Amino acid sequence: MMEILKSIREFERTLGILVDPEKLKVNDFSAFAKAITSTASILTKDLGLDQIILLIGGSTMEHVGLEAWLSAFRQQIDFKLVLFPGSAQQISERADALLFLNLISGRNPEYLIGQQVEAAKKLRNSTLEIIPTAYLLLDGDQQTAVERVSKTQPIPQSEVDLITDTALAGQLMGNKLIYLEAGSGARTTVSIEVLRKVVETVQVPVIVGGGLRSLDEIKKRFEAGAKMVVVGTAMEEDLNWKG
């Protein structure tokens, strides 16, 4: 049953908080749980949120035992956990769902089908809610980890037609979500113009993230039609963050 996808479709405002296991150690889970619960309460009120989910993932995660990390993390956290994998190695049955990502902004076959085939081997009998997601990396005015690892180039935000055509292609290929990403800590966030055009073009929920640091920036993305807004760096820098 597609519970998380259904909730993103039906709710108007879902906030995704990105948690990178390489940056959050097991010894810090208890303190993190208290801080994130308090911060989530504030954000829910100030942003009029319908729900908050935690996205779990990173670009490499070379030094993390994901199974053990998730097992310990679940004991401290009540939020739904959705895997946001950088590769087929970042899959675990200890989460609630998985964004099955296709990096359609690039042309590297490894991230269009190669990693997906490797992931499929692990997901044959999975109990995870698997959500096909078209992933578009847009230029955020600095090189990102996704760009380095995938060896692909982001789409310039001035190329609005290319972005919307790519997003529509993602929908036509059967993806259930469109994810517009400017990259962690982006200097330039996904513009309101680009977001609106994509929302007007596709008929599936649109997620947007990368470099969003204030309540006002998040509110404007929801108002422009994003069903889900993702924050990461801002939360890492200050768990009492209020915008």
From TrEMBL:
A GO molecular function held by the record: phosphoglycerol geranylgeranyltransferase activity
Binding site for Mg(2+): D20, S59
Keyword terms: Lipid biosynthesis, Lipid metabolism, Magnesium, Metal-binding, Phospholipid biosynthesis, Phospholipid metabolism, Transferase
Keyword Metal-binding: yes
InterPro entries attached to this UniProt entry: GGGP/HepGP_synthase_sf, GGGP_HepGP_synthase
GO BP annotations listed: glycerophospholipid biosynthetic process
Pfam families in the cross-refs: PcrB
Reactions this protein catalyses: sn-glycerol 1-phosphate + (2E,6E,10E)-geranylgeranyl diphosphate = sn-3-O-(geranylgeranyl)glycerol 1-phosphate + diphosphate
Chain segments annotated as transmembrane: none
Residues binding sn-glycerol 1-phosphate, per UniProt: Y179, L180, E181, A182, G183, S184, G185, G210, G211, G232, T233
Cofactor(s) for this UniProt protein: Mg(2+)
EC number from the UniProt entry: 2.5.1.41
Presence of keyword Zinc-finger: no
UniProt similarity note: Belongs to the GGGP/HepGP synthase family. Group II subfamily.
Entry function: Prenyltransferase that catalyzes the transfer of the geranylgeranyl moiety of geranylgeranyl diphosphate (GGPP) to the C3 hydroxyl of sn-glycerol-1-phosphate (G1P).
UniProt-recorded name of the protein: Geranylgeranylglyceryl phosphate synthase
Source organism of this protein record: Nonlabens agnitus
